[in-house]
Amino acid sequence: MIKFVLESYSFRRILVITAAFVVLLLLSSKVFDLLWKSNTTLPIITLGTIYSAPQEYDNISRINLKLISGNKVVIEGNKRLRLKDETGNFEYYDTLKIEYPDNTFEKTNRFFFQFEDSPYLDSVYLVTAKSEDKNIFYKQIFYSSTIIDGLNYTSTNPSDFRIDPSKLVGTDLLLNNDTVINQVFDYFNNSIDTLGLAECGTNSMIFQRICDKFGLPCRIINLQGGDIDQVGYFENIGYPLHVVCEIYSSKFHKWYVVDPSYGFRFMHWQKNDYLNAVEICNIHTFRREDEIHQDSILFTKRSLVGKDYFKYYENVVFTRQEWKNKFLRKLASVFYTNFTYYLTVFSNNYPPIKNGFYYVGIKTFMYFFLFILYTNLSMLIIIKRLFEVKKPKTPKT
Predict the structure, then answer these.
(1) What's the DSSP call for residue 274?
(2) Which of 168, 260, 280 is nearest to 218 (CA)?
């Protein structure tokens, strides 16, 4: 039977069509990438994912909230907690009853709880409101003093959600780690002749290694000026290219830029905190570079920078973690050659041709269209052959 199928006329035709489909797929991919003319990255949609506090400084209590059994809610904390007016040991999560409105349109449920090692009470206000159906109520979080990571979700494994206390910084650093930041600056300045400083990329890696020694959160940020009409050697944005660092300050509760090559950090002249790369990008976009105060803190160039310098910040590039799935990485490298999945970009002038969402979406549609053509053609051959087999023979006269 297998031999019959392999030697059949229809199978040979489908085999030829399959080979032609594979060749067409590869050629179409090449032509599509040539017409697209640009590498792509993922645009940053929400800045909260980029500028959230590093985990070791994230002592802000978090909870998951889950509604169960119609009139009960589970509160799960990233640290042990206990409920107000309840005695006993701290628990990882606890269950409370919620009340529904009777004579009023809505009912506010107030939950008070206290995290371990915290002298303060936290609260969640959950409002239940009547609907047109007497058996259905609307439920909404009106206010919460803690961050709710997951609604209607609890962790199957406590270690997946609870932060290990050993990974958190001390209370003094949580309030103000400027002492550590200044120690990093002093070490850099005192060792400047032996650090091996070179171009901006090397300088940023050296500065990051120093920060790691002092336990200061530091990351490297790629900057690049240019727009759709300017294409440099780093094609997914443009030119010129520069590399700086961002460090996390618990005093200001934010990441801000330190440029090891020029020796500066930057502050808005009307505000009392330092600027991160996105804030500098926005200021430059609206041509307000004169509002940026330059604070010289490293013994490198130590000369004021002009407007040409801030052109670097037109596009701010963050590096994401590599995909752990090797199959997905290989798939992207073969079928989506122009998609740089490990980079995300913030820009106020981000053309669609640079947008990785558009590139992947349109190219996937092209692949799907070709696959539909191939499937229909193969089915046509099979159905045609079936009709030929069942067609009655013409009797001889």
Answers:
(1) B
(2) 260
**Domain-by-domain residue ranges, the chain?**
2-36+355-390, 60-167, 173-319
d(CA 185, CA 207): 9
d(CA 364, CA 146): 41
DSSP annotation of 261 reads T
Cα distances from 134 to residues 68, 89, 99, 130, in angstroms, run 19, 39, 15, 7
pLDDT digits (tens, 9 = 90+) for 249-287: 999 999 999 999 999 999 998 888 999 999 999 998 888
Query: Phi, psi at residue 280, to the nearest 5°?
Result: -65, -40
E-strand stretches of the chain: 40-43, 62-68, 72-83, 91-97, 106-115, 122-130, 137-144, 147-151, 218-224, 241-249, 254-259, 264-268, 292-296, 315-319, 339-347
Residue in this structure with the two tokens 């947008």, named with its chain if needed: 355
Most confident of 59-68, 154-163, 217-226, 300-309: 217-226
Instruction: Reply yes or no on whether the pLDDT at 310 is more than 70.
Output: yes
In one letter, which amino acid is 228?
A: I
- Exposure string (b/e) for 312-338, b if CB count within 10 Å is 16 or more? bbbbbbbeeeeeeeeeeeeebeeebbb
DSSP assignment letter at 118: -
In angstroms, the Cα distances linking 295 to 106, 170, 180, 242, 302 are 53, 28, 18, 19, 9
Is pLDDT of 124 > 90? Answer: yes
Q: Is 267 in contact with 306 (CB distance < 8 Å)? A: no
Which tokens hold the place of 22?
A: 């594979």
- Residues whose CB is less than 8 angstroms from the CB of residue 228 and which lie 6 or more positions away in sequence, other chains included: 238, 349, 351, 353, 354
Q: How far is Cα 396 from Cα 344, in angstroms, rounded to an integer?
A: 75
Model pLDDT for residues 169-195, shown as the tens digit of each residue = 888 898 899 999 999 999 999 999 999
Average pLDDT over residues 108-133: 89
| CB 35, CB 51: distance < 8 Å | no
